[in-house]
Sequence to fold (325 residues):
Amino acid sequence: MAVISGRKISYGIGKETTRGTSVAPAYGIAHLDGDFKPRAEKVINDSAIGVLADANDSALVKEWAEGDLTSKFTPDAGGLLLLAGFGNVVTSDNVDANAIVKDHLFTMSENNQHPSFTLVRKEANKNERYALATCRKWEMEVMVGEYVKVTTGWISKKGVTGTDNITYLNDTEFVPKYAALRRAANVAGLTGGTDTKVRRFKVTIEKTVADDYVFGSTSPDDFFVTQYAITGEIELRYETTGEYDLYAGDTKNALRLSLVNTDVTIGTAARPGLVLQMPTISATEWDVDQGKDAVVMQTVGIKGLYDVATAQAIQATLTNTVAAY
Fold:
């Protein structure tokens, strides 16, 4: 056994072929922050036995693991996290002359069972696999002066001892100079529109995940997604009343976030990147920071709505050289 610092904890992820059967990690998650860890629940025996003590025994009834992992967004490992958050993916050839370049279209699964993964948590005192890991949150944040980050929230079966090694890729990373945010009246208007000057953008997919325990085990039998909600925030200068008018009125917008690393070439002439699109958003919150010694900034809270015309609430197209997820 050993004393360790948080930097000595490693996380890896792999997509399960058979639901609930653990697999080796395909990618390491180079985390900036992480609190994924094992959990347990006990029932206390508080039956009266003629004394004043409030309890006389306990029993272990539930074992699982849960927590969040925050990392820099990268186009290769990030695809597995996108699949975990969205649930569906369709892969096709990119228009680049080199067939190695692929486009992966991620959309929200409307099934109650979303894909399952194995998370590996490795450190000096434990090396464990956590099967049936189900993503209950996917969040991306783009902020001036920071790397583009993604946070995923997880719940899984209890850990079992493993012997895995975790490998980290020298993957492409993104900073805000590669980002562009655009809004328009509808999806068609996003093509040829004007980018919005933004200081910070965040989008969150929050899924309600129900755990299902059955007789014969203290570990969950499965996890089911019962609903999802999409929210976000946009922070920008207060220059017009346009943002407030959207908040106070009833006009909806379409939104597109583009992340394209123009300093990296893949295939013949393609660039690694992500295009995230929401066909219908509503401005549901508005606030202004009007400190007297700073430029006045405003923050708009948005709600992603399911668009009946396009049959989706959000989609993301990832371009890289991974053959499939």
Summary: DSSP finds two helices and 19 strands in the chain. The first strand starts at residue 10 and ends at 15. The chain has one domain: 6-38+61-320.
